[in-house]
Structure formats: C-alpha cells, structure tokens
Amino acid sequence: MSNQELSAAFFLQMAVILGSCRLVGMAARRLGQPQVVGEMIAGVILGPSLLGWKFPQFMAEIFPKDSLKLLFVGAQLGVGLYMFLVGTEFDISTFTRRLRSAAAVSISGMLAPFLLGAGLALWLYHTPGLFSAKATQVEAILFLGAAMSITAFPMLARIIYERGLTGTPLGTLALAAGAIDDAAAWCVLAIVLASFGAGPAVAIKAIAGGALYGVLMLTIGRRLLAHLGAAVDRAGRLSPAMLGFVLLLFALAAFLTDTIGIHAVFGGFILGAAMPRGTLTRELQRQIEPFAVVFLLPMFFTFSGLNTRLDLVNNPQMLLIAGAVLVAAVAGKGAACWAAARLTGADQRTALAVGTLMNARGLMELIILNIGLQRGVIEPGLFSVMVLMAIVTTLMASPVFEWVYGRHARAAGTFGAGA
Amino acid sequence: MSNQELSAAFFLQMAVILGSCRLVGMAARRLGQPQVVGEMIAGVILGPSLLGWKFPQFMAEIFPKDSLKLLFVGAQLGVGLYMFLVGTEFDISTFTRRLRSAAAVSISGMLAPFLLGAGLALWLYHTPGLFSAKATQVEAILFLGAAMSITAFPMLARIIYERGLTGTPLGTLALAAGAIDDAAAWCVLAIVLASFGAGPAVAIKAIAGGALYGVLMLTIGRRLLAHLGAAVDRAGRLSPAMLGFVLLLFALAAFLTDTIGIHAVFGGFILGAAMPRGTLTRELQRQIEPFAVVFLLPMFFTFSGLNTRLDLVNNPQMLLIAGAVLVAAVAGKGAACWAAARLTGADQRTALAVGTLMNARGLMELIILNIGLQRGVIEPGLFSVMVLMAIVTTLMASPVFEWVYGRHARAAGTFGAGA
Predict the structure, then answer these.
(1) By the number of CB atoms within 10 A of the CB, which of A195, B53, B93, B222 ranks highest?
(2) A419 in a domain, yes or no?
(3) For chain B, what is the total number of helices (H) and then of strands (E)?
(4) Which CATH number goes with the domain that contains A118?
C-alpha cells in the first residue's frame, strides 16, 4: 500500500470507527449506560464477532492488513495518554480518611478475585486455546488473578464525581479501595510481564527497571515536576511550549517502559501520578482529553474488538468457562467488597453500592487483556471470554447502582448538584 | 518490525521530534521569531540535511523504514486538522470592507508571483532533478505559479489578532488579501493535482468531484451544519458526542477528497469554512487545536524535513536557482503587494507592512510542496530549493515587520491590547 492509499484508508477507517462509536454510544446512553459501554460493544461489533462474520469482504476493505499497524500504534497512544490522565486524577490520600473500612474493602477486593482467578487458572491451565504454551502455570495464575482483580477505576471515579458523591462515605470508600486495587493489580501484571521475557536477565531488567522508574518518578521526578507546576500556576495558563514539553516527557516515559519490557501504560500512569495538582493538571486534562478520548481511544476499542472472537465461545465447554469466569468475577469482586464494607460498619445501601462500583471492569480490563494477548500470555479463546466478562460487569454497574443506591439517594436528596 | 517494536520506536521518535521542536522553537522565540519558524527548521535539522548527513546511523535508528508510513499518516492527520481549524477562522467578509485596496493587493499578490513562478518554470523545466518527467510543461507552470503565490495565511491572521490590529486598515487589508490569495492558489493546486491523474477520466473526476464537494459543502452542508451550531449554542458547550460527530465528518471529508484525487487538506479546509461561527467553532478550536498543533503538526514538519535535501543545493547552478527563486518570491509577493497598496492609497508604513506579511510562506508553503513532491510533480532538488525559500521568507517577516511598522506603531500607541 502506498503512503497515499494508506492515508485514505486511515481516514475511511476512522470514519467507520467514530460512526459506530457514536451510534452504539447513543443507544447505550438511551439505556442509561455510560459511553464507554457503547464503545466496548462497538469495538466487538466491528471485529470478527459480527462484521467480519457477516460481511468478511467489507471488513477486509475497511481494515486492510497494512492499516492494522497504524491502528495498533494509535491505540497505544490513546491508552497511554488516557492512563496518563487517569494518573493525574489519582489521589491516594483519600485512603487515610476511612482507613479501616477502605483497607478491608480493598484487601477483599484484591484477595477474593485473585484467589478465584488463580483457582480458575489451575482448572483451565491445560485446556487448549486458553493459555499460550509459553506461559508457565505460575504466570497463568498471576495473570488471571490480576485480570480478575481489576476495577474500572476511572469510570468509578467519574460516576462518583458526576453524582456529587466525592465527600460521602460511599465516595471516599469506593475511590480509596478502587485506587488501591488497581495499583496492586497493575503491579502484579508488571511482574507477570517482566517474568515473561526471554530469560532471567530480561526479567530482572524489567522488574528492577520498572521499580526504579516508579521510585525515581514518584520522588525526584515529582519534586522536579513541582517546579513546572509552580511555573504554570504563576502563568495562570499552560502555554503550547509547556504542553509540548509535557508531551515530550510522556513520549519518553512510554518509550522507556515499553523498552524495559513492562508497558507504555505504566509509563504514562506513573508520570501522571507524579504531576503536581493544580493549573497544570487541570489544563492538561482540558487540552489533551478531548482528542485522546474522542479520537484515539476508539482506535483502542476497535483494535481490541478485532481480536475478540465470540465465535470461539460457541460450544458447551467454552460457555461453561465463560459462565464460571463471570460468576467468579462478580462473586470475587462485587460480593467480597460488599461483605467487607458491611463487616466494617457500612450501612447496607452503601455496601451494595461499593460492591457494584468495584465490580465494573470497563476499559481497564480491556487494557490488561490486550497486553496479555499481545505478549502471548493468553490465547484468543480466553481473551474473548474475559472481554465478555468485562462487558457484562460494566453493563451491570449503572442499573444495579441505580437500583441499590441511586433511587434512594435521589429520594433523600443526598446526591450532589452534579447528579 | 513487530507491533510492539513499532510502538516503542514511535514513542522514541515522538520524543526526539517534540524535543527538537522545543529546543529550536525556544531559540526562535529568543530571536523574536514565531514558533512555526523553529519547527520548520527543526524538521530540516532532523532530515538528511543535517542529522542524516552527520549521524546517518542515529537517523536510521530514530526513523526506521517501517515507522515512516506512520509518520506520514500522522502528518496528514495533523495538517488535515490544522487546515480544518484554519477553515473555521476563514472569513471572506472582511474583503468587502476595503474593497478597492484589498482587490488590488490580492490580485497583485496573485498575478505577480504567479507570472514570475511561471517564468521560472519555463526556464527550469528542462533542468534535470527539478520537475518530474511525468509533469507536462503546463503542469509545471501551474504548480510553480501556485506555489509562489502562497501566503502563510494562518500566521498572518495570528500576527494581526495577537497585536490587536484586526480593525485597522492594515489588519483588514492583509487579512482580506491573504485569504483571497490562498484560496486562489489552492484552487490552482487542485487543478494541477486533478490534471495529474492517469488520464482525462481521472482528471474530470477530480475537478468535477472537487467542485461538487466545494459547492455542496458551502451551500447545503453549511445550512445543515448551522443546525449543529444552533444546538451547540443552546447547550452552551460541545459535548464529547458532538466532538466525535464533527471528527467523523472531518474523517469523511478527508477520505472523500483524498479518494477523488485532490487532497485531504481541501476536505478539511472546506468543511471548516462551512462550519457556523459561534460556540461550536470556538470549542472545536479549544478542544482540537492543542493536540493537533503541539503533537501532530511536528510530525508533518519532520516528514517534510526528511524529504528536504539541502545537500542537493550545493553547486553553483542550484545556488543560482535558489537565489532566483528567492528573489522572484520576494519581488512577486512582497514588492508587488506593497506597490498595489501604495497605488490604492495606503500610507507607506501600512503598505510596507502588508507586503511583509503577505511575503511569509510558512507552513502553507510546506503543505503545497509536500503534495507536489508526493504526487510526483516536482523532484527533491526543486523541493529543497522551495523549502529554503519558504523558511527564508518566513524568517524575514517578524524582524522586517517590526522595523517597518511595529516600532512606529508601538511608539504611536496604535497596537492593540494584545501586542
């Protein structure tokens, strides 16, 4: 494909991707679902599960082979920037405010799904088409454990901010527990990816390099970035030159973490978490988020959807596995978090709402799954089962939240102004 | 290159590109030059003219062959979005306010450089390494004529807005003439590109298709888009869904104009010009411009720089040609606009300032040159000479403007608040 043909193919592809994200997203919002649910489903629809199955010729024309590399890199840029923005909103200090309850919920929300995921990995390790032959049993256990423990932290945070729940017991509890759980799951994933290299030297480079990157960024890096934040605060605006400098740092961080063998999303997330809060982060969100979320992220959902093959989940055995994964996901995350909240004194509605919000997997799950597939830890069969789980748990969140908490809160007038 | 290697290479490349844009841009601002001058030069530095000449190994590592397709498409997206944003600022109505003078300046600013460019094309048509063997003499004349007539309209507009000159005789005159000239030059380019297809059927498709697209967009399209504008005005904000819809329209427009054989920048520009002014266009600029200008446009400057080979301009003959092109460019545009403004009653300082501003070629020249090179109208030798001309005329603008107008206006207090 010539440069010019590739560029025309890219514009057509983006029109199709943005069009289906809008259509499915609109339908999702009609049903009271967040946009992200629509885009997760739109990606699957564009893939071999529907479009490629019904109209293989059309799919081959919209997604010619040469364009897939482009889609991949655009998707990496999109999730990298997104995780960077998530990092700038990440605030561990909420944790200390309701220490006992938050610790109980986050530990249960990690341990229970991790153990259930590990159990599933033991059961499924030898089933063909799930784990790659390269993955050892320990790696399989760690990966599935981490993948089950994921929370859609950005979605959870958005629901809480949007409904004005930030200062409430529910808000602090869910934010703290969600943040801790995600941080822990990503650490486990980093260890899996690191161990998945070509021998111990590569693993040590990845683990030591990743740890060094994280520690340096959150200590020296944070202090240096504070000067940048102060300069932007004084200026009262983020100039194009400053934005360019931050994007340069982002590109460096993504390159570095990609190269040492963990993943660009870690580079972006930790850089974001090290940024000083204030005009700088507000302006970064304002200037980067629209394009990253509306134009680049759909490339990720589509790339993920192109790898999702629901046709592999069409026999009794795979349906049984899918059911078991879903039950383990909901029991391990939703039910365990509810129980932990109840046992540490939360009232019934708050505990149910915490369980519901923690249970949604959203985009974060797709990110971890795509990394696992791309690095060859899991195979398309398990990938597709897990995508299904991610979609169902995310779909459940809004209606269940409304049912167990929203309608009561609205009646009692305890939703904030943003609700 | 695997997906993963390509993605790591992309992040490293972006770090190098953004880093050199910052460095050279900073140096440019110190010297009173706009950022765009710095980025034009940074692109050339990263190419075979300097980096590839001194450190060929390093250049090959930063720009591996597989990554160039990516850079190309990112660059197309960047200039496409940029031209879309330029379209949303394009306002032909200023023309009517100083009709006689604006008409004189814009006609001189078109005819003189066009004739000089045509003369150059006649002279240079048979010199090897300038025009491609595929280009007929008429196409060579039209292309060089159009390329000489280009004005850096967005830069001109920015200087005028930033210094608060919008309502002054200088402001209206320069804005009107610059807009007309650029529109005319792009029409000529569209005709060249259309005629440059594989036979009359392709040319007719391009010319008729392009004209039809332009007319439909600016009549029916404009009316339909007015509803969108009214909806956004009522809402008082541009929602992510609406932004996604506009980006979908942009992708469609870019695909369409790419496919009929003119170029994606036309699709973007005309879509932008058809947009209703108000909250919609203000928000589009606010939400798209930072990322497009700071992250994507540098990809274009770099791609352009990778094609610029100043080593081809190292013999007496090529230096003579470069000198002739530069003299023709300045005489045809700067001097002719000054003379036309003087003859229609502008005072000396205003006329000199109009000539100076019209003379800068900036990014717009690089866009037309890259299209010419990519479609095979011109060869690397002429491309490099013309890039040199674009850089020099852009470099001249700020100091000459300051000398002939700025210091007097500042002394007289006739610069606006933004100066």
Answers:
(1) A195
(2) no
(3) 21, 0
(4) 1.20.1530.20
